[in-house]
Design goal:
Layout lengths: L6 E4 L5 H12 L3 E6 L2 H10 L4 E4 L5 H14 L5 E4 L15 H4 L1 H21 L5 E6 L12 H20 L5 E6 L7 H4 L14 H13 L4 E2 L3 H11 L1 H9 L7
Parallel strand pairs: 1-2, 1-4, 2-3, 4-5, 5-6, 6-7
Helix pairs in contact: 1-8, 3-5, 5-6, 9-10
Bound molecules: NADP nicotinamide-adenine-dinucleotide phosphate.
């Protein structure tokens, strides 16, 4: 599957992996539209990357997804690739009291968002030849890092949802690819995990995106660069060892 002359919508494309993906895909001759919740960040991204289009939209809001669908398919009827990339990751201590609504915020953004986006855009994607949905999960989909329990649950959920979606779309002409990045040097990686990631070397976003594009073009269904591949293997060969190793990162102190 060639990624050229495509029209690609990337959720959460105003920074990190999404923005780098947009940069490289534009350089390959694609039309790229990114979303994000913040108008100023959307403006900054479209200023920085020549040719990039931007639309403000929150993937955790079903009404915003419906509005994004009308806007994006109206202005870009050739849209044939959806990248479910937007995500948040928090350091959550389950031993501390928490507001019950706030507690599940990652589920709304990282899991409900992509499920709703896929459902909303599917009728349109089915009309386009060789359409593609890329779901961004994580190496943490295979082995959780307990210091970020809700996030890891959403990524395991994204892995499962991607498998089912792929099966249900067999014969529809829509390909489903899961990208499970390892630690990548972005705001999300260091954000609330300064202590846990101290001294750790993460993958450069440009390297991740090069490997992602190569993986999609080579026809891979699941792209697991670097440590993500190791985590998947360990989750099968030595799941307890893998979990204990991940548990050492950011002991909660309880
Ligand atoms: N970095 C890593 O180590 C790593 C590893 C594995 C998987 N991933 C996954 O890769 C994806 C991208 O992460 P990143 O590292 O590039 O993070 P990032 O630099 O923090 O970028 C996240 C992007 O998502 C947007 N976003 C957040 N909430 C949103 C919402 N509700 N609606 C729409 N957009 C939203 C952000 O913009 P606004 O905040 O302005 O909305 C931003 O553009 C995520 O799904 C993440 O889980 C990252």
């Amino acid at each position: 599957m060639k990624l050229a002359d495509r029209t690609i919508l990337i959720t959460g494309g105003t920074s990190g992996i999404g923005l780098e993906l947009a940069r490289q895909l534009i350089a390959l001759g694609n039309t790229v539209i990114v979303t994000g919740r913040d108008q100023a960040k959307v403006d900054e991204a479209t200023r920085d990357v020549a040719g990039l289009q931007g639309i403000v939209s929150d993937v955790s809001d079903p009404a915003a997804i419906a509005a994004l669908y009308s806007d994006a398919t109206g202005r870009f009827p050739a849209l044939d690739v959806l990248v479910n990339n937007a995500g948040i990751m928090r350091n959550l201590d389950l031993n501390a009291g928490r507001d019950l609504v706030d507690l599940t915020r990652e589920i709304e953004v990282n899991l409900m968002g992509p499920i709703r986006m896929a459902q909303q855009f599917l009728p349109h994607l089915k009309t386009r030849p060789n359409a593609l949905i890329v779901n961004v999960s994580s190496g943490l989909a295979f082995v959780p890092m307990p210091v970020s329990p809700v996030y890891c649950a959403t990524k395991a959920g994204m892995h499962s949802f991607s498998q089912s979606l792929r099966v249900q779309l067999r014969g529809s002409g829509v390909t489903v690819v899961e990208l499970a990045p390892p630690g990548v040097e972005t705001k999300l990686f260091r954000g609330e995990f300064e202590k846990e990631t101290k001294g750790m070397k993460a993958m450069d976003p440009a390297e991740l995106v090069r490997r992602t594009i190569a993986g999609i073009e080579a026809g891979k269904q699941e792209i697991r660069p670097g440590q993500s591949n190791l985590l998947k293997a360990l989750s099968r060969l030595a799941p307890e060892v893998a979990l204990n190793q991940m548990a050492k990162m950011g002991q909660t102190g309880h």
